[in-house]
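2 proteins. here.
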Amino acid sequence: MKELSMSRMDIAALITALGGREPLQQLLGVGPSAVSNYLTKGSLPTRARPLICQALQERGYQVDPQTLGITALPAVKSGRPHAPKRHGAAILMIVGGGIAAYKALEVSRRLQDHGITVTGVMTKAAQQFITPLSLSALTAQKTYTDLFSLTDEAEMGHIRLARETDLVVVVPATANLMARAAQGLADDLATTLLLATTAPVIMAPAMNPAMWSHAATQANLATLRKRGIDMIGPVAGDTACGEEGEGRMSGPETIVTAVLAKLAQAVSADDLTGRHALVTSGPTIEPLDAVRFISNHSSGRQGHAIAEALAKRGARVTVVSGPVNIPDPAGVKMIRVETAEQMLEACMAALPADIAICTAAVADWRARERVEGKIKKHPSDAAAPTLFLTENPDILARLSSHSQRPKLVIGFAAETDGLQANASEKLQRKGCDWILANAVSPDGSSETVFGNAQNKVSLMTGDGQERWPMMLKTELAHKLVQRIIDTIGAVNAKS
């Protein structure tokens, strides 16, 4: 079969212009795997040329029939199915120079499906992957590339762009772009806009796993987060460079969900003003001797994400955290502890609170007696030393039964098996209001919760349970906080 050779980016742009993969499948009478093969091989069957050309023309595009390249934009009033419905929400999308740039096209299309106006800004490097025309064709808006354009700068275009937007989203946020933003550089249109805007900013990082884990990138990440910039991902998986690890950009659907949540927050950012929320996060460590301890793999990511989401909705947040290696959530009071007993003491001291969310993975047991110094291994000893353990205090149960009990007490149940049964039993035994049950896979699979950027939970209440799909921990945090707001509002309405 003869094929029409095209770049992966050009095919992705065509797919997006057609409205997604499904319309292309229907147009050509093929299945999802065929479309995936087109992208992988960088080619389309020759028979597809007239069909795609006609479909694009019907949507208002002018197309080169030989190359299928888009040569002119559709009119704004073209009536194409995904034309933006201007209802006031406006997004400034900065496209960074990475292989994931082509996904920005899909993000822009999906945002418009929600009636959001998208204006594109592309770095010089981004133009090596997709063209400004492709983005303009999908947004029906001019795409900006040059800080020193005379036409745009006659009206101080960069200031206007920075201020006349509800949200700035960077897709993808490369290591270079994050570094320049963290340093406050303004050496191109993208970084100038990031420095000049007063709107909220969301970044979707994408880079090689080694670049993401590098100390410099992590330092830049901490700086940007401290300034209030939200990070969506990255996630673990195969990257374009052929390596596997954390660094892959989150999918378009996840990014769009985060954007919608952020826009909702902007409308109701003070929903929890006047409320005090107590959050436990991370692991506890229980010393055996001067050098050894009992602990677990909890990273603190979920607890920290929930704390930051609560703060962004106006709550006064106290976080009691065990030892973690992640940046502090923005806008919260941090109390650092090590042991379960220290965590309990800090939680009791933080009361009264309106909301308590216990995400910390508290060690159930500690050494009955801690050995002073180091337990020595002697060649003459045939057997290992015997450890005597005693039970740690149950922080969740204590908060649930306290005389100053928060109005809403939420716990987490991490289980390796019998998830639903164990979580239901824990809900009753602890006396809390909600339990979020999540399976912790011991085999290192993608479902593993500890240390992962994603989580999958079932929300269990006295009224039943809801199974939430796999999502970023930041996304789960916002979803949970919204549920809390809805519940507290309902309670207040009855009182």
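next one coming up
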Amino acid sequence: MSHAPENPGAAAPTPAEPAPGQGGLTRSLSHEQMTMIALGSALGTGLFLGSGAAIAIAGPAVIVSYAIGSLIAAIIASAAGEMAVRFPVRGGFGSMAARYLGPFGGFISRWSYWATTVLVAGAELVAVATYLKFWWPELPLWVGIVVFGAIVLGLNAFSVKSFGSVEFILSGIKVLAVIAFIIIGLIIVFFGLPSHPAEGLHRLTEGGGFLPNGPASIWLAMAVVMFSFGGIELVSISAAEAKDPVRSVRSAAKATVWRLSTFYVLSLFVVMCLMSSETLTQEEGLSSSPFVRVFSDVGIPAAAAVINFIVLVAALSAANANVYAGTRLMHSLSYEGMAPRRLRATTARGIPAGALAVSSLGILLVVVLALFTESVFQIMMSMITTLVLVVWGLILVSYISYRRRDGAADQFRLLGGSAMAGVGILGLVAVFVAVFSSATMVVPGLVAVAFFAVLVVVYFAAVRHHAQLDESAFQEAHDATGAVPTVAPPQRRR
């Protein structure tokens, strides 16, 4: 369905899409690579390391928390995917927010998400450094962060095609590892191994039972659980560099939704069946991966080392994907007058080098924090959760406006449409309240809220009067697909 501009006479000609080296991105990602990029971002530290904190809150009932989180995440990923199928634009859902909610919505969503990706990249590198302590306990956190941070920046600085290839390999390793973990874990639970009897399901109800901390703990754990799903929206960001955007976004969105839901729920089921929540929530257990501890404590030390290597790769992959996402968001912001114009410049390989440099600030931040505290990961997780909840809320609000104006996409759509998006918003509000119900998350959460306040001030003081919709992005998406209709942007109020 195509709409003509409300004021055709005032419409400015759409600028040509710049070429690589002049600000343009290159469409070189296959649909397999896009799927793995999305999985690479979402399937990371939140599951492998952060799940320990969720277990401490809810015990075995954390399985229910992850099931609910999977449903909310599926709604968000499907909504972002439907919009990206129709408009595979640079800036992804941020550009959609600018089109359907106005420049302010685009500014807040993209700057918030940029901050999220920057912090997530840093948190993932903290996790990498933490996993290294499995082999080298005395190794300072900052050393691991610096070494692997340099590797991630190098991967992102070469070319998007190389980035996609490396991320495909890294994500493939951890996807296969998670599948193997689930299969082996289920065998140990129900059948046993020659050297290890079947564990059964008794640990799900022993001690304080399935709900040792009461039904409310399921909701409180959501404050930690939703951190695990950060990255589900990345398929929307990477759509602007897809060879075949419609096919790639459609397949990537579908795969991300069902694979993540299956991986998270079954993985936590295995963990809770093989180890008691009391053991997993001991202080030392929260500084290492529950996944590693499972195989170590059931008497398979070699497997523990292998799993530790895998979760290290998983964290490295997620850091890699988030640096990529932050770089593309900053590049998009520069086109709409919401970031310095110099950040739109790209190298001959199509890499936004200036945007990449700015998006490396998260790595610098965690290096500094690691010099003063070992609780870097918990601090970062709380800030990230607060930021990403707002981003996800804006995605769903943009989606509701999109469906109201333009109807559903033909190639891929969210089941239930706007009504299901409304359910997702209610879920996000509940999680937001849970964040500020946790004593350990309040202060970092307030820091994130202060960041939003700064964004609002900056927008109205310095950005409002020259922010503009990047029409060239939508024209480029139209040219790339040959079938995506162009839609008139909302008229700005003066």
